[in-house]
Amino acid sequence: NTPGLRAGFIHVPWDAENAPPGAASLPQADITRALEIAVITTLTYTSDLDVPAGHLA
């Protein structure tokens, strides 16, 4: 544990143009926009919710 260090994981599906048959995928523009929102949110909010992992408030 490092005080003040925030970390996370984002699962990114295949982009639709390169996905193997039957694999989950999204259009590249949707993936890009989702990652932009994740970065903006991370930089905007400086504290995390104090809830168990996987729990939505």
Keywords:
single chain, 57 residues, mainly alpha, two-stranded parallel sheet, 30% helix
Structure, described:
It is elongated, with a radius of gyration of 15 Å. The longest helix has 17 residues, at 28-44. It has a two-stranded parallel sheet. The protein has one helix spanning 28-44, and strands at 14-15, 25-26. It has 57 residues and is mostly helical.
Strand content: 5-15%
Shape: elongated
Largest sheet: 2 strands, parallel
From the helix content, strand content and strand pairing, which structural class follows? Answer: mainly alpha
- Tally of separate helices: 1
Name the helicity range. 25-40%
In spatial order, strands of the major sheet run 1-2
Query: Mind telling me the C-alpha Rg?
Result: 15 Å
String of helices and strands: EEH
The average pLDDT is: 89
Write the layout of secondary structure elements.
Layout: E1 14-15, E2 25-26, H1 28-44
Parallel strand pairs: 1-2
Concise account of the structure shown:
It is built from one helix and two strands. The protein has 57 residues and is mainly alpha-helical.
